[in-house]
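2024-03-11 09:14:02 INFO worker-7 job=invfold-0412 stage=load source=structure_tokens
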């Protein structure tokens, strides 16, 4: 065999091998004609429904498939299709054309045994004041969670076998409805308010509400003449005041295991520290504050990001000018900007910093831990101003995927593309309830169809520079401070405190580095705040160098209370009440 023929023979053999392998794989795994027909009976709902029909497929039934869709490596499979005016008994079809995650198409599902479940995430119609009509999933008390939203229809999980080249239509009946959630009850220390917001109701064209979970200080009833500073603990949807327990840990509680923190019995640790907080809160030396946790779940997410938005409405104004004064009036707050403070982590960290920047006279200090991106040059790992594509690095030959989530060793759990693929499977038009979708809903202008104008093409990752320009002018916190420091600087001096771990899972430390470069170079005035890091610390480090994340995240109130008192003593105006609440 001569060399030329040998090379030709090897090339042909390689091509034939690839072709035969592809044919074998197709015969074993591809199902271009496999379909699922999903319907609901009139006994569950007798009216046509809009929403997102989700087909959930799992390799096990340790938990129902609807609770196994995540951005992490252990995620199971979901496919989604939009449905409009779906009638009882009418089938929604999920087939090879449905968008999926992690597999893109049902045709790619390998043959095997699976647990399957279907769920209809219901949408409602909103006629907004801006003239747009949109269909969105209204929060129903669960904090905008599609897999547990009351009123959503779902099926009993069933086990099926998918065979090679399966061409069946598999029927699924949505035989269950997620029940309503009972509201929490008031106690001596914890109170609950619900406010119909005039501002939000006008925007959404229907009654819209803000909720307040209020933690009252020890001695509130026995000191009727005391008036108190207000502390807002920003964060994701709070069903009730969290981390506050009036009884010792339950000795009968079965220990769990925290995958996030690699800790056995983390549920017991949480109860232990919740009881420790109660003991500190009611003890003789704890500062007497009112703590407010806000319920501002909306049709896009479990909270609003506490700012005004073209797509969500004037949540910033509603919180600052409607809800906060109501809480202060009802619970004897001091009612002045010098006596209002905020802290929080992640989403709550961004909210605390943003509210302080957008309402500089209304608040007197923000402690933002692991804040969501505060400079969009580092929108996690995407530079929306300079990168061409959010999913792959700009390179002449390579298509290196941008990382989205890591552990402290840098090991990847997800790419930016995968995280957005999951959201696209769960909902189109920013309706997934996911992280990238809510950023887009808050920061973007409304598109011609009334839904948020995409910052990038969800399927390809191509960035829209015009949307990036809008984001910069309205919500890039570092840019806004740079642009307006002459006016903002005197109002923000001493008020901004930022903490982040250098191993943050979502690369949120990158944006903090950029903000630090500006803030520590400020003059006339110097920002006079604090920026701090912890090496190797993951999401969401809050500035406590003495305890690991798993514990420090349970001690926000104890950790920041002394800092707030120090700020009050340093900055309160002449004649301010510094005594009635210090007993």
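2024-03-11 09:14:09 INFO worker-7 stage=emit residues=583
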């Amino acid at each position: 065999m001569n060399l030329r023929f040998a090379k030709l023979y090897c090339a042909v053999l390689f091509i034939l091998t690839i072709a035969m392998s592809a044919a074998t794989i197709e015969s074993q795994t591809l199902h271009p004609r496999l379909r699922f027909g999903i319907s609901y009976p009139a006994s569950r709902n007798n009216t046509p429904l809009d929403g997102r029909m989700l087909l959930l497929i799992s390799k096990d039934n340790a938990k129902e498939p609807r609770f196994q869709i995540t951005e992490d490596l252990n995620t199971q499979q979901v496919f989604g299709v939009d449905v409009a005016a779906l009638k009882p008994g009418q089938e929604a079809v999920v087939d090879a054309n449905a968008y999926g995650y992690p597999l893109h198409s049902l045709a790619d599902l390998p043959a095997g045994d699976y647990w399957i479940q279907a769920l209809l995430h219901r949408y409602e119609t909103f006629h907004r004041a801006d003239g747009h009509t949109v269909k969105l999933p209204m929060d129903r008390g669960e904090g905008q969670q599609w897999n547990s939203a009351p009123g959503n229809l779902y099926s009993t999980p069933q086990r099926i076998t998918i065979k090679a080249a399966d061409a069946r239509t598999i029927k699924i009946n949505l035989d269950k409805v997620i029940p309503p959630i009972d509201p929490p009850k008031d106690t001596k220390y914890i109170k609950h308010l619900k406010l119909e917001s005039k501002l939000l109701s006008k925007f959404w064209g229907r009654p819209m509400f803000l909720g307040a979970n209020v933690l009252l200080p020890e001695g509130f009833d026995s000191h009727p003449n005391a008036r108190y500073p207000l502390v807002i603990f920003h964060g994701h949807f709070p069903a009730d005041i969290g981390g506050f327990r009036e009884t010792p840990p339950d000795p009968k509680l079965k220990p769990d295991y925290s995958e996030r923190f690699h800790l056995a019995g983390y549920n017991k640790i949480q109860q232990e520290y919740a009881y420790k907080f109660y003991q500190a809160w009611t003890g003789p030396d704890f500062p007497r504050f009112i703590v407010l946790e806000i319920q501002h779940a909306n049709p896009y997410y479990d909270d609003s990001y506490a700012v005004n938005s073209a797509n969500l409405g004037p949540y910033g104004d509603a919180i600052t000018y409607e809800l906060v004064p109501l809480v202060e009036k009802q619970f004897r707050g001091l009612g002045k900007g010098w006596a209002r403070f905020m802290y929080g982590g992640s989403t709550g960290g961004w909210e605390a910093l943003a509210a302080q920047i957008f309402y500089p006279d209304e608040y007197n200090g923000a402690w933002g831990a692991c804040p969501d991106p505060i400079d969009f040059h580092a929108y996690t790992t995407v530079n929306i101003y300079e990168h061409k594509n959010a999913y792959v690095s700009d390179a002449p030959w390579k298509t290196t995927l941008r990382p989205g989530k890591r552990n402290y060793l840098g090991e990847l759990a997800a790419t930016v593309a995968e995280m957005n693929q999951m959201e696209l499977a769960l909902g189109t038009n920013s309706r997934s309830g996911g992280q990238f979708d809510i950023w887009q809903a808050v920061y973007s202008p409304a598109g011609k169809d009334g839904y948020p104008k995409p910052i990038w093409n969800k399927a390809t990752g191509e960035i829209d520079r015009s949307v990036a320009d809008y984001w910069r002018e309205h919500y890039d916190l570092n840019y806004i401070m740079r642009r307006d420091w002459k006016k903002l600087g005197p109002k923000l001096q001493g008020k901004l405190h930022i903490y982040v771990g250098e191993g943050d899972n979502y690369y949120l430390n990158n944006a903090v580095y950029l903000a630090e470069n500006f803030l520590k170079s400020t003059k006339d005035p110097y920002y006079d705040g604090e920026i701090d890091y912890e090496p190797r610390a993951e999401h969401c480090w809050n500035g406590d160098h003495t305890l690991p994340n798993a514990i420090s995240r349970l001690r926000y109130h104890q950790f920041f209370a002394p800092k707030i008192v120090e700020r009050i003593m340093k900055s309160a105006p002449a004649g301010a009440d510094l005594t009635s609440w210090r007993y």
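2024-03-11 09:14:09 INFO worker-7 stage=report msg="The first helix runs from residue 3 to 29."
2024-03-11 09:14:10 INFO worker-7 job finished
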